[in-house]
Design a protein that fits this description.
By secondary structure, the chain is α/β, with parallel strands linked by helices. 38% of the residues lie in helices and 18% in strands. The protein starts with 10 loop residues before the first strand and ends in a 20-residue tail after the last helix. It binds adenosine-5'-triphosphate and magnesium ion (MG). The site of magnesium ion has 3 residues, from helix 7.
């Protein structure tokens, strides 16, 4: 089988080819594993090895792709009817389910099907070294679940360079993959993610390439950030704010800040901090009809939602009485309605009002008397945060609800791009009414050129209610930082693989790494990214957020450590 040696002409054996001093040993893929871990290419073909990977991919037209998926489902159906001859029933059911999911993804254009040919080539200075390299490659691929084969007597077909159309390839060379499956072989992002006009969201954990995202180019301008305590959510949000401002200085910012963490940052940006526990600076009247542009009926509905968030134990008949009293208040023409006015109305209701007058007394003489009265607060700055620190925990959903109402009005009436940052968003997920309001707000924000940055520890906070799920569906990007656990519901909702879910519970924390490891889900893309601050950003955000100082990234802005 061997030909003349020492020349530039190819010399070929049953399973290798030599050109000059280089022996090339091809390896084909017979079957792909169902899932692949991040950065698997780096493990399969480490820089110390001499391995090439060639990929040919042709897009399968959408109509044909759907036909193929329907065909696969029909086969699974027929076999299930026949009692699963040849394959186990659970496997057929999985096949049927995944054909359905894929059919939906194809119809929704989240995925496409590709005819893909993949060829690995192990190279060596001698035949034995080349073949040994190929053997190690096959072992590494097998450990990831790939099934491979050495193309014997088909070396020319396996190694022929791609040519327009008609190169003969070894049997079994062509496979069908989804966009996600094909994407796993590309360690860098796609042009849809690399929005040149966007902000830097992180560096790819596999090759440190930067990923930019432009929220204003997405149908929804809202993003979510999830992660356990200390995972780096507030820091990531502050970085996003800074970078957004840098790119679009005209962007207005409102921060709803339950823990009072952002005051330093907002002051650094020249903005105003509204401290709710200090009512001397001015009052926001939760009942101010201006927040719905004078729509008193809409306002009455929101007021009932706020009050129910304050008293979640209200019985249905009490809620109905409250609802009627609030409606009466807004039907009356006169001065701006106040909570004291509502308390007076209910006090006149006698026995009908049950325990409501006693509850409303809190606005007259109790801890919430600061919110009784017309709005006196005026803020003209384009950067403002509302600091809720120091208020009783059980009152936070109420305060957040009327502040959100005020913020929503501000966002809907002021021109230009706007960002609303809501930290500790789980406080609004405690009650159906406030979750519904937040969901509606997110759906409408984009009409006002505004986006929400929603931060919460656990995505499950929002997964348990229909409006919470609707809200999550309307986030165009979700960043998952370290999570304590990833529930099955969360995995299914966000389409996370088991490997991704497990990785998230081990993602590195900024306290250990100096940057935050994260997984970004943007449309159908799942990108593992390091959220890294440059030194000046770190100095500004780290100090302004008032947190404990942690090791800064290296001066060149790159983070050291795993995967970078
Ligand atoms: N990307 C990062 N690079 C460097 N340091 C970071 C990064 N992210 C977070 N940190 C640091 O880690 C600490 C915790 O971060 P952060 O406060 O943002 O966590 P969190 O997820 O908001 O936690 P919590 O749920 O308790 O509010 C802070 O001291 C912060 O300065
Ligand atoms: Mg935080």
């Amino acid at each position: 089988m061997t030909g003349p040696t020492g020349t530039g002409r190819p010399d070929e054996g049953t399973s290798w080819r030599r050109i000059g001093r280089r022996y090339s040993c091809p390896l084909l893929v017979r079957q792909f594993p169902p899932e692949l871990p991040f950065g698997f290419l780096g493990r399969v073909a480490p820089p110390s090895s001499s391995i090439d990977l060639a990929i040919e991919a042709d897009r399968i037209p959408a109509g044909r792709a759907l036909e193929m998926v329907h065909g696969a489902r029909a086969v699974a159906d027929a076999e299930l009817v026949g009692g699963g001859a040849g394959a186990a029933v659970p496997e057929l059911e999985v096949e049927r389910r995944s054909a359905d999911e894929l059919g939906r993804a194809l119809a929704g254009r989240f995925q496409e099907l590709w005819r893909v040919g993949i060829r690995w080539v192990a190279n060596g200075p001698s035949r034995t070294r080349g073949e040994a390299e190929r053997l190690r490659l096959a072992e590494r691929l097998a450990s990831l679940g790939f099934r491979t084969r050495v193309p014997r007597y088909e070396v020319a077909e396996a190694l022929a360079p791609p040519a327009q159309g008609a190169v003969r390839r070894p049997s079994g060379y062509w496979q069908t993959l989804t966009t996600d499956g094909l994407g796993a072989f590309y360690p860098f992002g796609d042009e849809t993610v690399l929005d040149p006009g966007g902000v830097l969201v992180g560096l790819s954990l596999s090759d440190a390439s930067p990923v930019f995202l432009d929220r204003w180019a997405q149908a929804s301008h809202s993003w979510g950030v999830f992660g356990t305590t200390g995972a780096g959510k507030s820091f990531a949000a502050a970085l996003t704010v800074l970078r957004t401002r840098w790119l679009r200085p005209e962007t207005e910012l409102i921060v709803l800040d339950p823990l009072g963490e952002y005051s330093g940052l907002v002051r650094e940006l020249g903005g105003t901090v509204v401290c709710l526990r200090d009512t001397t600076a001015g009052r926001l009247n939760p009942l101010d009809p201006a927040t719905t542009g004078g729509d008193r009926r809409e306002k009455a509905g929101r007021v009932v939602t706020m009050l129910r968030a304050l008293w979640p134990s209200l019985r249905d008949e009490e809620a109905a009485t409250l609802d009627a009293a609030v409606s009466r208040l807004y039907d009356r023409v006169g001065p701006e309605p106040t909570l004291g006015g509502l308390a007076d109305d209910l006090a006149r209701g006698g026995a009908f009002a049950g325990r409501l007058p006693a509850l409303l007394e809190v606005f007259r003489s109790g801890s919430l008397r600061g919110v009784d009265g017309p709005t006196t607060l005026r803020v003209d700055d384009r950067t403002v945060s509302v600091d809720l620190a120091g208020l009783p925990d059980e009152q936070l959903p109420f305060h957040l609800a009327y502040v959100l109402d005020w913020a929503y009005h501000r966002l809907s009436t002021r021109p230009g791009p706007k960002l609303l940052l809501l930290d500790e968003a789980h406080l609004l997920a405690r009650h159906d009414g406030t979750t519904e309001f937040l969901d509606r707000a997110v759906r409408h924000l984009r009409h006002f050129d505004a986006g929400l940055l929603l931060l919460t520890q656990d995505p499950d906070d929002f997964l348990s209610s229909p409006s919470g799920r609707s809200l999550l569906r309307n986030l165009s990007a979700c960043a998952f930082l370290r999570l304590t656990e990833v529930s099955e519901a969360c995995r299914a909702f966000f389409g996370l693989t088991e490997t991704e879910a497990e990785w998230l519970t081990k993602a590195r924390l900024p306290t250990d790494a100096g940057y935050a490891e994260s997984l970004w889900r943007i449309g159908a893309w799942h990108l593992p990214l390091a959220i890294v601050a440059s030194t000046p950003e770190y100095e500004l955000v780290g100090a302004a957020l008032g947190g404990e100082r942690h090791p800064a990234p290296r001066a060149d802005g790159a983070a050291g450590g795993r995967g970078l």
